[in-house]
Amino acid sequence: MKSQRRSLVSIVVVVLALLSSSTILRADVTGSITGVVHDRANAVITGAKVTVTNVKTNLSQQVASGSDGSYHFLALPAGTYKVSATASGFRVYNATDIVLQVNDQLSINITLDVG
Known about the structure:
The chain is of the alpha/beta class. It contains 1 helix and 8 strands; from the N terminus they run H-E-E-E-E-E-E-E-E. Strands 1, 4, 7 and 8 form a 4-stranded mixed sheet that branches. It has a 4-stranded antiparallel sheet with strand order 3-2-5-6, with no helix packed on it.
């Protein structure tokens, strides 16, 4: 009887260890970068192409700014990024060395210059 009880306790301990390790492995290791694209007069720019590029992996994602000028990059892996934005009639915007850490929610508002 004691050996069965000991075996049951061992099984429970192993199951709990596996469950806790899977929870740790699933922990959020991402962050987000959001913001608003506008011009020097502070008017929002709709449809601007905003790109984030992970400097280490060179992987990029691109979105268009919404009707309110906002853009959102969610669930980005932690790392160093560069952000660029373009829109017709405006100069290209570039920001470099943006460090995104786990659970960061960075707000980067972008001002585009006419040109």
